[in-house]
Amino acid sequence: METKSLNRSLGAAKTAKKDEFYTQVDDIEKEMRHYKEHFKGQTVLCNCDDPRVSGFWDYFSKNFEHLQLKKLIATCYKNQDYNLFSQHESEKGIALVYTGDKDGNRIPTDEEIEKYRLKGNGGFSTPECVEYLNQADIVVTNPPFSLFREYVTQLLDLGKKFLVISNQNALSYQEVFKPIKENKMWLGNTHPVKFRVPDDYEMREVRSWRDEEGQNWRSLGNACWFTNLDFKKRHDEIDVFRPFNPDEYPEYDNYKAIEVSRFKDIPKDYAGIMGVPVTFLERYNPKQFEIVGCDYEVKQGSLSHLAKEDWGGKLDRGYVNGRRLYARILITNRNVQKTR
Q: What pLDDT is attached to residue 13?
C-alpha cells in the first residue's frame, strides 16, 4: 500500500465529522439471502464492528447454526465496552469469538462468547487484527467509508472473500474501480436503506431524522454492497433490443465513444466503445460486456487513445454538444447482434 495514499485517507478519516454508520439487520438479511451456499463451514470475520451490538454480529451469531458456520469473530476499534456508539475513549480494541450454541437454547449467551482485550487499538490493519483476518474465510462488515480504498486493498491482497458496504463514490478510486474492471470484485444485489448514527451526528434537512425514541438515522441514497462472492443475478443478461442509430446515440465531443444515457438502451448491434452510467455496474455481466475503463482513466492518460486530438476542453468527463455529463463507465458488447 502506498504511503501517500494511506496518509491521504487517514487524514480524511481525522477530518470527517462522523464516519459511523450502523447497518440494520433487515438490510443484512436482504443481501445475505443471495449467498447462503458460500458460508457453510466457514469462519466469518466482522472486523469493523462494535462487538455484540452491531447488526452484523447480531445477524451471524443468531443465524450461526442456520448458516452452518464454523466460527464468528468480531473486532472493534478503540472500544473495550459494549456501547453501540462508543466514544472510542479507550486506546485498546476488543475481539469476540463465537463457535456456536452450547446450551441448546439457540441464543448466543455471554458465557458462550470468548472475549479478548487487544494490545492494540483494534484497527483493521493492526498486526493483531490481521492475524484474525488470516483466520477468516469471509469478511462481512461496514468499514469506514473514508478508509475504504485501504480496506478493500487489504482484502484483495490477502485473497479474502468479502461482502462489505461503501457508497458508489468509492468507484472513483483506482483501488476500487481497477478490481471491478478486472472482474475481481463487483457490486452486490441490494442497497442498504438506512443507518443508525451517533447522537451528536450532524443532522441534515434531507435524509436525516430522529425517531420517537430519540435515535438518529441517516439514509444514504448511493450506499451499496461490494463483494467477490458469486450470485445468481450476476449471470443475468441485460435485454438489449434497440438498433444503433447515430441520431439517438451521439458521439462524445471529447471521447471516441458514443453516449448511452441508460443501460437499458444499450444498442444490440454496436461493436464500438460506449459510455454508460455507473448504475450499469448493478447489472454488469462479464460474459455479456467488457469494461474498457472509465472517463476518469481517459483523463489520467491510461486510455489516452480515446481522447479526441482536436478537443480543446477538459477531459474530466464526457461532453455531448458542450454539456458535461456525469461519470461514465466505458464498455463494449461481447455479443454484438448482426443486423440484416
A: 38
Q: Quote the CA–CA distance of 213 and 112 in Å, as a whole number.
A: 31
* HEC string for 114-145: EEEECCCCCCCCCHHHHHHHHHCCEEEECCCH
Which residues does the chain have with pLDDT short of 70?
A: 1-22, 51-53, 79-90, 193-207, 209, 213-215, 217-221, 338-340
Between the alpha carbon of residue 123 and those of residues 66, 304, 340, the distances in Å are 30, 39, 60
Element (H, E) at 288: none
First vs last Cα of the chain: how many Å apart? 52
Q: What is the pLDDT of residue 6?
A: 37
CA proximity to 195, closest of 223, 214, 227: 223
* Predicted pLDDT at 107: 84
State the Cα angle at 47 between 213 and 1, rounded to 5°. Answer: 130
Spatial contact of 326 and 317, defined as CB atoms under 8 Å apart: yes
- Which set of grid coordinates corresponds to residue 30? 436482504
Domain boundaries, the chain: 3-232, 258-333
What architecture is domain 3-232? 3-Layer(aba) Sandwich (3.40)
